Amino acid sequence: MKVLWLQAAGCGGCTQSLLGAENRAGVLAQLADAGVDLLLHPALSEASGKDALDLLHAAASGALPFDILCVEGALLRGPNGSGRFQILSGSGRPVIDWVRELAARARQVIAIGSCSAFGGIISSGENRTDACGLQFDGDQAGGLLGPDFRAAAGLPVINVAGCPVHPGWVVDTLLALALALGAFAESDLDAWQRPRSYTEQLVHHGCPRNEYYEFKASAEKLSDLGCLMENMGCKGTQASADCNLRPWNGVGSCVRGGFACISCTEPGFEEPGHPFMETAKVAGIPTGLPIDMPKAWFVALAALSKSATPRRVRENSRSDHPVILPGTRKGGPK
Amino acid sequence: MSRRLTIGPFNRVEGDLEVTLDIADGRVESAQVCSSLYRGFEQILIAKHPLDALVIVPRICGICSLSQSAAAAAALADATGLPMPANGRLASKLILACENLADHLTHFYLFFMPDFARAAYRGRAWHALAERRFQADVGEALREVLPARADWLRLMGYLAGKWPHSLALQPGGTTRAITATEKVRLLTVLREFRAFLSSRVFGDTLENVSALHRADQLSAWAQGRAGDFPRFLDIAADLGLERIGRASDTFLSYGAYAQQGGAGRQDDHREHLFARGVWRDGVLAFDEALISEDVAHAWLFGEQPVHPREGETRPLIAEFADQPDAYTWCKAPRYGSRVAETGALARQMVDGHPLLRALVAANGGSVLARVVARLFEIALVVPAMEGWVRALTPGEPFCHQWQLPDQASAVGLVEAARGALGHWLHIERGRIARYQIIAPTTWNFSPRDAGGVPGALEQALVGLPVGEDESVPLAVQHVVRSFDPCMVCTVH
């Protein structure tokens, strides 16, 4: 399975994250062993300059058939629709033109990260570079390739969104395609065209702060152990991703690191409408409630659970280390 | 005979790079370095809540992610004069060091060494080994390095939640308090990395490596030694890599791993693991007021060189014809109107490691000296990190609260893997009113300034040999990659 990887207007962080995948022989060997042949990757391949450009020309013309186009980074249409904010070095042509041409030749097109999926961080503010995703502009279908785009194999762009992506999301997606396990019908993608393999879960699932959440024992300041939802801007109860079921860098995640989930897998995460590290509230109640939960229920539950919070949980939630240990039951738990 | 050669896409550097060479009589006569991507982070930051910078700036760069966080956190701390608790300081240093060392390793194995596996070097005595070990994508070393790197990044899992793009580095410290058991695990990660470095990278202990003080000691040490660094030294000696890549020989370091406080403008007297200063035929005190940026050759609006505290970033939208001399999105930073080089070599020149000073005294800044400096830094920093982990005190605080000032002007100066990284921040009415960034590769891959003086890489490329039929000259590739450029940081 031949893969062509382009870096558009991104930070390269999705590639860096991918290289950190945990595998006995490293992720490059893992992909190669599964039959993934990286024809060109800007950070990894030997070819540079004319050699790399010749390969891209051959791929764009159809002389060099390939299977998958991975695009990392947002697509810059500015200034004034020219694409000049990112010229593909050595080619004199905007990256967006190359992406359009190559996407038309690919059997599958994969957006690697939230930038190439939806526009991402660069599209925030006034979006002066006119950044967008491959098939979305924020949460609006369209983007660079248009809402009707289908790659040769029949699927729309597969959005492996995240800022950055978890290495596992990319590996799972590429391997599912390489090993032809039958995955990746359109029904394997969610409403944002993300692989359901990692968006059927919420960041909340497996959150190590679950006991604090249950009692609404909330962190009040940075480094507190308590739940980050009420005050610290955490959107883990609304964001789709398996970050706390499949740790980052072996042992971590955002909430494990002591800071909020900013819902980086969702379109528009870059413009939350409030400071990232503060929870938006109306009349003291967070505006972003746990997904699928009616407001009245949340308010009732929060009032009840706050009134029933054990002292240990309340005290520990406001500290950066446990100050009261769980009690010990004589004779062991029943 | 003269010709013009444009090289791009220049791969195995982070981000977008195009290099144009004017070649006469088989040598580079002059060079132009083009950063071909503009994203406008400095504009995106305007009017945001100051702490939102901690979400936005790491996303400038996925390889210097937490260095960008560290500079922003330092600037925010400087805005209020906020001190950090001891644990927060130690954890911040560990996080930054983890990224910097991971980047050095990534550069050596993934970006730099694969060039020696090229078919053009077939016939050299070392080629078969270089090909087996370092070939891009498939070299056997990658099967060892990537797992070692992933294990190393577990430090980030513990201390920063994840890498890249974390919110763990805050102006008041770090968000994740480390427990006593986690201290043991952090030390275990460090010990495993140390073992990998000793067995695969150096073929010796870290302490024996960093104690090598003279060039002849280094050559004698490398002779016949099994280890990828000695293998590089063998290749470098054969190709004369000590003789290519000289730039301005003015070296700039903001000082790495401050022992106290943040990394603001006034930190000159604070103790760093690697000192703050400027080297030009000797160490000079660093004066932040001497920094300026010039846009004479960039696709940006602006008239005179200005200090970053007053700087702005406004891209040309349609007026490209009005700026015929422009060839890049990169500004030209200058220190006291001089071209400065920054990076691991600059850090060691300023701090005074005898071997690096000796290498530069003999041949000036070079491909060899830059690579040796990076590897030596790994050998020097891992033992320091072990000390920082041991000094963590579980139960004591890691983070102080930051109070938003209504108005402030502040600066954060840190050392990323690739060198001096500065953030200049102005807050008005509780919002970001101005944000200017000068990244390490902005210094190194600067274009010409208004006086027509070429940037560091542009100088380093002059005189390099280019074969008649070479479309991507090997010597040029070695020199470009010896700086470990990060192009996404360069323009941001």
UniProtKB/TrEMBL annotation, chain A:
<dbReference type="GO" id="GO:0044569">
    <property type="term" value="C:[Ni-Fe] hydrogenase complex"/>
</dbReference>
<dbReference type="GO" id="GO:0030313">
    <property type="term" value="C:cell envelope"/>
</dbReference>
<feature type="binding site">
    <location>
        <position position="234"/>
    </location>
    <ligand>
        <name>[4Fe-4S] cluster 2</name>
    </ligand>
</feature>
<dbReference type="GO" id="GO:0009061">
    <property type="term" value="P:anaerobic respiration"/>
</dbReference>
<comment type="subunit">
    <text>Heterodimer of a large and a small subunit.</text>
</comment>
<feature type="binding site">
    <location>
        <position position="115"/>
    </location>
    <ligand>
        <name>[4Fe-4S] cluster 1</name>
    </ligand>
</feature>
<dbReference type="GO" id="GO:0009055">
    <property type="term" value="F:electron transfer activity"/>
</dbReference>
<keyword id="KW-0408">Iron</keyword>
<feature type="binding site">
    <location>
        <position position="11"/>
    </location>
    <ligand>
        <name>[4Fe-4S] cluster 1</name>
    </ligand>
</feature>
<keyword id="KW-0479">Metal-binding</keyword>
<feature type="binding site">
    <location>
        <position position="227"/>
    </location>
    <ligand>
        <name>[4Fe-4S] cluster 2</name>
    </ligand>
</feature>
<dbReference type="Pfam" id="PF14720">
    <property type="entry name" value="NiFe_hyd_SSU_C"/>
</dbReference>
<dbReference type="InterPro" id="IPR006137">
    <property type="entry name" value="NADH_UbQ_OxRdtase-like_20kDa"/>
</dbReference>
<dbReference type="InterPro" id="IPR037148">
    <property type="entry name" value="NiFe-Hase_small_C_sf"/>
</dbReference>
<dbReference type="GO" id="GO:0008901">
    <property type="term" value="F:ferredoxin hydrogenase activity"/>
</dbReference>
<dbReference type="GO" id="GO:0033748">
    <property type="term" value="F:hydrogenase (acceptor) activity"/>
</dbReference>
<feature type="binding site">
    <location>
        <position position="14"/>
    </location>
    <ligand>
        <name>[4Fe-4S] cluster 1</name>
    </ligand>
</feature>
<dbReference type="GO" id="GO:0009375">
    <property type="term" value="C:ferredoxin hydrogenase complex"/>
</dbReference>
<feature type="compositionally biased region" description="Basic and acidic residues">
    <location>
        <begin position="312"/>
        <end position="321"/>
    </location>
</feature>
<feature type="region of interest" description="Disordered">
    <location>
        <begin position="309"/>
        <end position="334"/>
    </location>
</feature>
<keyword id="KW-0003">3Fe-4S</keyword>
<dbReference type="InterPro" id="IPR001821">
    <property type="entry name" value="NiFe_hydrogenase_ssu"/>
</dbReference>
Automatic annotation (TrEMBL), chain B:
<keyword id="KW-0560">Oxidoreductase</keyword>
<feature type="binding site">
    <location>
        <position position="492"/>
    </location>
    <ligand>
        <name>Mg(2+)</name>
    </ligand>
</feature>
<dbReference type="GO" id="GO:0016151">
    <property type="term" value="F:nickel cation binding"/>
</dbReference>
<keyword id="KW-0479">Metal-binding</keyword>
<dbReference type="GO" id="GO:0008901">
    <property type="term" value="F:ferredoxin hydrogenase activity"/>
</dbReference>
<feature type="binding site">
    <location>
        <position position="61"/>
    </location>
    <ligand>
        <name>Ni(2+)</name>
    </ligand>
</feature>
<feature type="binding site">
    <location>
        <position position="64"/>
    </location>
    <ligand>
        <name>Fe cation</name>
    </ligand>
</feature>
<keyword id="KW-0460">Magnesium</keyword>
<feature type="binding site">
    <location>
        <position position="437"/>
    </location>
    <ligand>
        <name>Mg(2+)</name>
    </ligand>
</feature>
<feature type="binding site">
    <location>
        <position position="489"/>
    </location>
    <ligand>
        <name>Fe cation</name>
    </ligand>
</feature>
<dbReference type="Pfam" id="PF00374">
    <property type="entry name" value="NiFeSe_Hases"/>
</dbReference>
<comment type="similarity">
    <text>Belongs to the [NiFe]/[NiFeSe] hydrogenase large subunit family.</text>
</comment>
<dbReference type="InterPro" id="IPR018194">
    <property type="entry name" value="Ni-dep_hyd_lsu_Ni_BS"/>
</dbReference>
<dbReference type="InterPro" id="IPR050867">
    <property type="entry name" value="NiFe/NiFeSe_hydrgnase_LSU"/>
</dbReference>
<dbReference type="GO" id="GO:0030313">
    <property type="term" value="C:cell envelope"/>
</dbReference>
<keyword id="KW-0408">Iron</keyword>
<dbReference type="GO" id="GO:0033748">
    <property type="term" value="F:hydrogenase (acceptor) activity"/>
</dbReference>
<dbReference type="InterPro" id="IPR029014">
    <property type="entry name" value="NiFe-Hase_large"/>
</dbReference>
<dbReference type="InterPro" id="IPR001501">
    <property type="entry name" value="Ni-dep_hyd_lsu"/>
</dbReference>
<protein>
    <submittedName>
        <fullName>Periplasmic [NiFeSe] hydrogenase large subunit</fullName>
        <ecNumber>1.12.99.6</ecNumber>
    </submittedName>
</protein>
<feature type="binding site">
    <location>
        <position position="486"/>
    </location>
    <ligand>
        <name>Ni(2+)</name>
    </ligand>
</feature>
<feature type="binding site">
    <location>
        <position position="42"/>
    </location>
    <ligand>
        <name>Mg(2+)</name>
    </ligand>
</feature>
